[in-house]
Specification:
seven-stranded mixed sheet; about 40% helix; about 500 residues; alpha/beta
Length: about 500
C-alpha cells in the first residue's frame, strides 16, 4: 500500500510530514497512514500538471497514442482485480463481490475512454454552415487544460476512474484529491500510471483533509476545470469558489431518489429491487432509491415481504462468504446514520425493522438494514439524504399522486418505476424530474450512459460521451476565403 503523494511521476512525502490515519471499518482500528497534504503539496501538483499540459507531450499526442496508455492502465487494473478489491474491502468495508465489481468496472471505464480517445482522431472539426459565402468555419474540440478532481469515499477507485479516464482521454492533465477516509486504492493509480507509461505530471494524487487540500485545489489559479462528487453543501462551496476564477465546473451531488411500485408489479421483483436500491453498498450510494412509494393495494404485501427478506441479509466483514452488508465506512458516518434513525422516530415515523447494531458486532461500525413506514412527508428522513442502509416507505393512490410525491424533493439525481404496463412505466419515467431513471430496476450503472442530476443534485454529466465532453472545450475557427479585399476601411 502506498502512503505518499504522487506528484510529477513520483511518490514523495507531504510538505508538512504529517500523516492521516486510515481506519478499518470492520473493527475501528488504524491499519495504515497516508500523507496529510496541504496547500504546498497542491501547488506542487498543480504546477506539475500545468507543465505537463502546457509543455509536455500528452495533449499533443494523437488520440490513438493516448488510448494505448489508457488501455494499458485498464489492463493493469484487470490484472490486479483481486488485490485491489481486497484493499477496497479493508478501507471501505463493502463486501468483496461488490468490490470486485467496482474494480472490474474501473478497468472497463479506462478501456471505454480509450476507445473514445481514438475516435477524437477522426474529429477534424465540424463544418459550420455560414450565411456569408466568403467565409467558412469549423468547430474543433480541445482539452480544457488542468483538471482538479475531488472524489468521495463510497466508490473510491471507481469514482476516480469516472473523472481521471475521460480527462486523460481528452488530453488533460489531472490533480486527483481522494477522500481522506478511503485513499488507499486511489493512491495505487500512481503505480498504474508509471507502469503504463503515462508521462510525468499528467496524473498527480494528493491525499489530505478537505480544508487543507481540497480547498487549495479548488482555489488554485492554475486549475482550469473542477470536477467534484460529494455532498450538496461542499458542492455549493466549490461552485462559489470556481465562480471567482470562472472555472469550468461539474458537480455530482446528493440524492433522495424515489422508487415507485405500481400494483401490477411482481411482488418478489419489487422486493428484490427495493433491497438492491438501498442496501447495495450499504446504502452509501448517491443515487440510492431511499424513498419507496408503493401502490396502496399491494402496500401491505410488499412491506411484509421486504421486512422478512431484509432481516435475512447476512451482515459481517466484507471478506466473509455470503456477506451482503458490510460495516459503515467510518465512525462519523455511522453516528450520522444513527442520529438520522433517532430523528425519524422522534418525527413520528414507524421503525418497522432494523435500526440497531446487530448482536455480536461490538467492534466496528455495523448497522442492521433499516425500514421506516408511516413517514411524514415533511419529516427530515423523508426529505434529506441519510447515505446509509435506511429506506423510507409510503403508499400512494394513483399515478398522479405517485409522480407528485416522487418529484417533491430538492434533489433530482435518480428515480425508478416498476410496472408490468411499460407504456405507463415510460410515461411516469418521462414525468420524473431526475437525470437518471430506471424502469423495472434500480441502480444498474453503465459506463456508456450519461450520469448526473437535476436541481440540487448537480451540474453536468459524467460517463459516456458526455463524460468526455466534460473535459473538452469547443473552439471556432473561421477563415476568410475570398481573394477580393474586404474593403471596409481600405476602399479601392
Amino acid at each position: 500500500m502506498q502512503h505518499m503523494q504522487f506528484i510529477n511521476g513520483e511518490y514523495i512525502p507531504s510538505a508538512s510530514g504529517k500523516k492521516i490515519d486510515v481506519i478499518d471499518p470492520s473493527n475501528g482500528r488504524v491499519y495504515h497512514q497516508v500523507s496529510a497534504g496541504n496547500a504546498e503539496d497542491i501547488d506542487k501538483a498543480v504546477k506539475a500538471a500545468r507543465a505537463a499540459f502546457d509543455d509536455g507531450p500528452w495533449p499533443k499526442m494523437s488520440g490513438r497514442e493516448r488510448a494505448a496508455i489508457l488501455r494499458k492502465m485498464g489492463d493493469i487494473i484487470n490484472e490486479r482485480v483481486n488485490e485491489l478489491a481486497e484493499l477496497e474491502v479493508q478501507n471501505n468495508g463493502k463486501p468483496l463481490p461488490e468490490a470486485v465489481w467496482d474494480i472490474e468496472d474501473t478497468a472497463g471505464c479506462f478501456h471505454f475512454y480509450a476507445d473514445l480517445a481514438e475516435e477524437l482522431d477522426q474529429d477534424e472539426g465540424k463544418n459550420v454552415p455560414l450565411s456569408e459565402p466568403r467565409f467558412y468555419s469549423i468547430a474543433v474540440r480541445e482539452p480544457v487544460g488542468v483538471a482538479g478532481a475531488i472524489i468521495p469515499w463510497n466508490f473510491p477507485m471507481l469514482m476516480a476512474a469516472w473523472k481521471v479516464a475521460p480527462a486523460l482521454a481528452a488530453g488533460c492533465s489531472v490533480v486527483l484529491k481522494p477522500s481522506e477516509v478511503t485513499p488507499i486504492t486511489a493512491l495505487e493509480y500512481g503505480v498504474i500510471a508509471q507502469e503504463a507509461g503515462l508521462p510525468k505530471g499528467v496524473l498527480n494524487i494528493v491525499t489530505g483533509l478537505g480544508p487543507d487540500a481540497g480547498q487549495p485545489l479548488t482555489d488554485h489559479p492554475g486549475v482550469d476545470k473542477l470536477a467534484f462528487t460529494g455532498s450538496v453543501p461542499t458542492g455549493s462551496k466549490i461552485m462559489a469558489a470556481a465562480a471567482r476564477d470562472i472555472k469550468v465546473v461539474s458537480l455530482e451531488l446528493g440524492g433522495k431518489s424515489p422508487l415507485v411500485i405500481f400494483e401490477d408489479t411482481d411482488i418478489e421483483a419489487a422486493v428484490e429491487w427495493i433491497m438492491f436500491g438501498i442496501f447495495w453498498n450499504k446504502g452509501e450510494v448517491c443515487s440510492a432509491t431511499s424513498r419507496v412509494l408503493i401502490a396502496r393495494s399491494i402496500y401491505d404485501k410488499v412491506l411484509a415481504r421486504l421486512i422478512e427478506e431484509a432481516q435475512k441479509i447476512k451482515i459481517g466483514h466484507g471478506m466473509e462468504k455470503d456477506v451482503l452488508l458490510g460495516p459503515i465506512v467510518n465512525k462519523s458516518q455511522f453516528e450520522k446514520i444513527k442520529a438520522a434513525i433517532a430523528r425519524g422516530v422522534e418525527e413520528g415515523a414507524t421503525l418497522a425493522s432494523g435500526g440497531r447494531t446487530p448482536d455480536g458486532f461490538e467492534e466496528g461500525y455495523y448497522l442492521e438494514p433499516t425500514i421506516f413506514t408511516d413517514v411524514p412527508l415533511d419529516s427530515w428522513i423523508w426529505k434529506e439524504e441519510i447515505f446509509g442502509p435506511v429506506v423510507c416507505v409510503r403508499p400512494f393512490d394513483g399515478e398522479e399522486d405517485a409522480i407528485r410525491q416522487a418529484n417533491d424533493s430538492k434533489y433530482g439525481l435518480a428515480a425508478a418505476v416498476m410496472s408490468a404496463d411499460l407504456e405507463r412505466a415510460n410515461r411516469v419515467a418521462r414525468a420524473f424530474r431526475a437525470g437518471i431513471v430506471w424502469v423495472n430496476c434500480s441502480q444498474p450503472t453503465f459506463t456508456e450512459a450519461p450520469w448526473g442530476g437535476y436541481k440540487q443534485s448537480g451540474i453536468g454529466r459524467e460517463l459516456g460521451e458526455w463524460g468526455l465532453n466534460n473535459y473538452l472545450e469547443t473552439k471556432q475557427i473561421t477563415t476568410f476565403n475570398d481573394t477580393s479585399p474586404w474593403g471596409w476601411f481600405l476602399k479601392e
